[in-house]
Amino acid sequence: MRKVISLQHVNCETPGLIEEALKSKSYSVESIQSFRGQPVPKDLGAASGLVVMGGPMGVYEFARFPFLRDEMRLIERTLREEKPVLGVCLGSQLLAGTLGSAVGKGPHKEIGWYPVMLTESSSDDPLLKAANRSFMAYHWHGDAFGVPAGATSLASSARTACQGFRYGRNAYGFLFHMEITPEILNGMLSAFGEELEEEQISADAIRQQAAEHLSRLQTVGRLVFEGWAGLLDAAPA
User: Fold this and answer.
1) Count: domains in the chain
2) In the chain, how many H helices and how many E strands?
3) For position 128, what pLDDT does the model report?
4) For residues 97 and 94, what is the distance between their CA atoms, to the nearest angstrom?
5) What domain range includes position 168?
6) What digits encode the pLDDT tens for the residues 85-111?
7) Is residue 82 within 8 Å of residue 74, measured between CB atoms?
8) Scanning 72, 199, 203, 230, which has its CA 20 to 30 A from the CA of 25?
9) Is 48 left (phi over 0), alpha (psi -120 to 50) or beta?
């Protein structure tokens, strides 16, 4: 079976619906758990694409998490090889940072359910053209970045100007979470409970809102991730 490499930064933030979409296109996922000390490869080798997941660390925390430099080198190499890249939350920040954008703490954290608005440019984007122009998304980030030079802005929210972008034909970064399943959601609420307390955000309220919004967000996520999986077949071997 053809494979995609996924970089995972914390136990609870797995590829979720991304892996489901990849399996539907006959791709397996090889997960590199860099937070457990598994080495980041220098290149993808025979793998068809790269997925970079979320995590609680910041792109700029190289001293605490030296593997982040290795990940950015791998992203850069993958971009040069013109193989598809998909970054989610921290993954989108690492992709943006690799492309030269400054990534840093935003004026406020965005945690929970907030609307995302797609830009005009998304109307002819291969992954987003069939999605609703606005939908409720799940967020968990304190850092933000600008649209990288040469990239196309795809999404924003009231709190964060750049929520998604495309670079070239097949590199995508999404700051919000479309990959979540109930297991991922509950895992994040449990793992990051201290942060919720600091921000005075109710985990129960997030769960209650998920009952209303999660299924519709997953519909968008499947559309997007199956579209990205379709790009793998057209990428250089």
Assistant:
1) 1
2) 6, 9
3) 97
4) 5
5) 2-232
6) 999 999 999 999 999 999 999 888 999
7) no
8) 72
9) alpha
Distance, CA of 219 to CA of 217 (rounded, Å): 5
User: What's the token pair of residue 175?
Assistant: 């700051």
Residue 3 — φ and ψ, nearest 5°?
-135, 160
Instruction: Count the alpha carbons within 13 Å of 16 in the hemisphere toward its beta carbon.
Output: 26
Q: Could you tell me which residues come within 8 angstroms of residue 113 by beta carbon, excluding any fewer than 6 positions away?
A: 136, 137, 138, 139, 206, 209, 210, 213
Q: How confident is the model at residue 76 (pLDDT cuts 50, 70, 90)?
A: very high
pLDDT of 237 strictly over 80: no
Residue 237 lies in a domain: no
Q: Tell me, what CATH number does 102's domain have?
A: 3.40.50.880
**Which is nearest to 196 in space by CA: 90, 113, 136, 111?**
111
Q: What is the pLDDT of residue 234?
A: 83
Is-contact 173 87, C-beta < 8 A? yes
Query: φ, ψ for residue 198 (rounded to 5)?
Result: -60, -35
Task: Centre a 10 Å sphere on the Cβ of residue 132 and count the other Cβ atoms it contains.
Answer: 12
pLDDT at position 105: 94
Residue 6: pLDDT band (50, 70, 90) is very high
